[in-house]
């Protein structure tokens, strides 16, 4: 009970506030780190999407996929798509005659969580009988960081 002239919080009230802040921090910090990684990987996936558009255009114009094992410099020279090599290494890999794969290996993505660096993200293309190109995301990067669709 407060006496006349005393103001303030009780110890229990302060402990409850500290506990609530601790619970919120325990939830928010891992989610923040995951979103930060996802944002940094967006630069890589956006570059891969631009490369996919150029590869699809090349396929539509020449009725064949670009040369296999083209690195980022070759892709830039042949297809006019310049890829950010500060965030990863890029290459195209031809599979069977009806498919190709664009592969990126992210680097320098996160110093706090280096488990993403060195893994691969792939964007695989295949054609249907009508000539449509289907793109599918994959790779060794955890599924949570791979774009949907």
Provide a descriptive summary of the structure in words.
It is a single chain. This protein has about 150 residues and is α+β, with helices and mostly antiparallel strands. It is built from 2 helices and 5 strands; from the N terminus they run αβαββββ. It has a 5-stranded antiparallel beta sheet. The protein is elongated, with a radius of gyration of 24 Å. The model has no long low-confidence stretch (mean pLDDT about 80).
In summary, what is this structure?
By secondary structure, this protein is an alpha+beta fold.
Task: Give the helices and strands, then pairings.
Blueprint: H1 11-62, E1 70-71, H2 72-79, E2 88-94, E3 99-106, E4 121-127, E5 133-139
Helix count, per DSSP? 2
Order of helices and strands: HEHEEEE
CATH architecture type:
2-Layer Sandwich
Measure the end-to-end span. Answer: 61 Å
Q: How big is the Rg?
A: 24 Å
Strands in their spatial order, largest beta sheet:
1-2-3-4-5
Number of folding domains? Answer: 1
Shape, principal axes of CA atoms: elongated
Beta-sheet strand percentage? 15-25%
Q: Which structural category do the helix and sheet elements fall into? A: alpha+beta
Low-confidence stretches: none
Name of the CATH homologous superfamily: Glycoprotein, Type 4 Pilin
Biggest sheet architecture = 5 strands, antiparallel
Helix content class: 40-55%
């Amino acid at each position: 009970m407060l006496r006349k002239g005393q103001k303030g919080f009780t110890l229990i009230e302060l402990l409850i506030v500290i506990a609530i802040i601790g619970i919120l921090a325990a939830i928010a910090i891992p989610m923040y780190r995951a979103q930060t990684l996802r944002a940094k990987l967006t630069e890589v996936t956006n570059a891969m999407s631009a490369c996919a558009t150029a590869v699809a255009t090349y396929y539509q114009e020449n009725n064949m996929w670009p040369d296999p094992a083209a690195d980022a410099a070759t892709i830039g020279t042949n297809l006019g798509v310049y890829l950010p090599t500060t965030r990863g290494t890029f290459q195209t890999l031809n599979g069977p005659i009806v498919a190709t794969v664009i592969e990126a290996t992210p680097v320098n993505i996160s110093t706090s969580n280096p488990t993403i660096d060195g893994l691969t993200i792939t964007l695989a293309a295949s054609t249907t009988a009508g000539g449509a190109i289907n793109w599918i995301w994959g790779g060794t990067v955890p599924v949570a960081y791979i774009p949907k669709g």
